[in-house]
Amino acid sequence: PDTWWKDGAFAKEWAGGKAVPFWQNADIIQDFLDNGAAGKKWTAKNAASAAQSLGDKPEHRAAAEDLPAREDFFRKHFWQATKYQADFETNGDKGTLWTMSEAAGKGEVVGEGELNARQAWYRPTMKWQLSEKPQGEENAPAADAVEVIDRDEWFKKNWWKNPIVKND
Questions:
Q1: Which of 67, 101, 126, 142 could cysteine-pair with 107, CB 3.0–4.6 Å?
Q2: Which residues lie closer than 8 Å to 85 by C-beta, 6 or more apart?
Q3: What is the pLDDT along the chain (168 residues), one digit of tens a residue?
């Protein structure tokens, strides 16, 4: 497969991206929506514990006072979960999950401003997230969500290959 996105310029762009807490990732939100209080990812204290679904083990569980804030975030940002992203990618504007005001396709269709904000969130904002190497100012279509996650994982594991680090 073409690995143009591993190029130093794209690695710099990835490294400059705003990091978010691990529990705000799409698969973690999905764990909350699918499993509620029994979720083993969203209840984890760190990314390593979440990756292994160890949030049900006391030594890997987040502090009790941290969980209500996460739950609140998940309820407001349910549409960022993997199932809702897939609905957007598959159905676009006709999606029945990502367009709604509540999880599981409930509630009403959100207003135009919120729809636009959600669409912008689903679409790539960085060149390393595109399906093809960008040529000039025109952007290629986005890589699918799985590919973007795989690339992000590659960058996390290979951070030391970044030109910024090599030159330091």
A1: 101
A2: 26, 98, 122, 145
A3: 567 656 666 565 655 665 678 899 899 999 999 999 999 999 999 999 999 999 999 999 999 999 999 999 999 999 999 999 999 989 999 999 999 999 999 999 999 999 988 988 887 666 666 666 666 655 556 666 666 667 677 767 766 666 555 555
User: b vs e for 76-104, b when ≥16 Cβ sit within 10 Å of the residue's Cβ?
Assistant: eebbbbbbbbbbbeeeeeebebbbbeebe
User: Using an 8 Å Cβ cutoff, are 97 and 82 in contact?
Assistant: no
CA distance 159 to 165: 8
Long-range contacts formed by 116-120: CB under 8 A, 24+ apart:
118/79, 118/88, 119/88
d(CA 78, CA 80): 5
Q: How far apart are the first and last CA of the chain?
A: 30
Q: Residue 1 is which amino acid?
A: P
What does the pLDDT look like over 86-95, one tens digit per residue?
999 899 999 9
